[in-house]
Fold this sequence. Notes:
There is one protein chain. 37% of the residues lie in helices and 23% in strands. It has a domain of 53 residues: Orthogonal Bundle (Multidrug-efflux Transporter Regulator, Chain: A, Domain 2). A hairpin with a 2-residue loop joins β1 and β2. The strands form two sheets. The chain has a three-stranded antiparallel beta sheet with strand order 3-5-4. It is globular and about 45 Å long. It is of the alpha+beta class.
Amino acid sequence: MVLPGASRNSAGFTGRPDPTVFGNKEREMRTLELMTVAEFCDRYSIGKTSLYREANAGRLKLRKFGTATRIARADAEAWANALPTVEGRAA
């Protein structure tokens, strides 16, 4: 029996997934670049409390792996690009 996503050659099971079986979402998840909370806070110069406030407000998407919290680089960049801009004098 060959599991979905596995491929078989003339010698039998290859152990490598068949890239044609997976859709775009699965391919994206395999190549997703993730940051830790500390890396995100350092990169965007905000504290952990502000990060969790943004996540609770639905403006930033967090991903959990067991107890570890990660932020996808694409989600972080989307969050940063959605921040309001200030024209004129500094606020």
